[in-house]
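User: Before I run my own analysis I want an independent prediction to cross-check against. Here's the chain; please return only the structure tokens and, at the end, one sentence I can use as a sanity check.
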Amino acid sequence: MADRQETLIERLIPGDLEHQIPAAVQKVLPGGFRNRLVQLFLGALITFGFAFVVRRMVEKREALARGRRAEPIPPPILAEPPQLAPVAQAMTEPVPSLSAPEPSASPAYSSALSGRATRYPLLDKPHINLGGSVDQDMYRSFRDQLARAPHDGPLVVAISTLGGDPEIARLMGDELRLMREYSGREMLFLGKVAVYSAGATFMASFPVDKRFLTRGSRLMLHERQMTATVELSGPLRMQVASLKAKLHEIEESVRIEEEGFRAIVTGSRVPFEEVCKRAPANWYIEAEEARSLGLVLDVI
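Assistant: Structure tokens:
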């Protein structure tokens, strides 16, 4: 008798099917239907088993992705602005000692001030110290100290003043500008306690990244002042000329004042219009505020 063809269920489940399938099931189900039912059961088992494995793999990948997204991203490291590099390089030389912070200052604030002092050691001993009213006496002191100062290397100029002659302030600033441009020397400004009126005009001759203030100092910007009496006497045509001359003096003073305001705010975050708006009422600026506005590089 020819060998009968082996069914799929016999290939999947080798052995004697008569002993592997319970007798009760064999009696109830016909042979063909029974084989078909076993095939469906095995197919469903394989399908659901494969789906379970795939779902587990997807869940693991999603959990790993959520863990990566939860990791904090470190902030970018900003490079030091190029225009500040010459100041930092010239002023990081070590010094023998530094003055101790005031006992009333908090430890954290004292530590910050000490760090700033270490960064700018040249400011500890200015080469030129100016104080009092900005006038001819200050100018003579400025010239004498400038002549005795070192002829090379950075030059530190400190000032504390309630104001004075703005043209004297412009003269001292212009002499330092010429020296800086002809010799290439670095000029550093240090304002102490009060830098008012003409003192701010003098400060304007230094770039913003060369300006410093001591802790607790104040800047004060205001309009130029004039006190004059116009006396009319003589022929009428001469009175017209006298009035025009006084008007031209006022107009030119306003232009010079605006030049000074522009020089003060150049390179800072203060618009020129803001100075013009606040100067008529005397604009006082505390040292830390001046630093935040970019009018000075730092406070020590």
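Sanity check: The first helix runs from residue 8 to 12.
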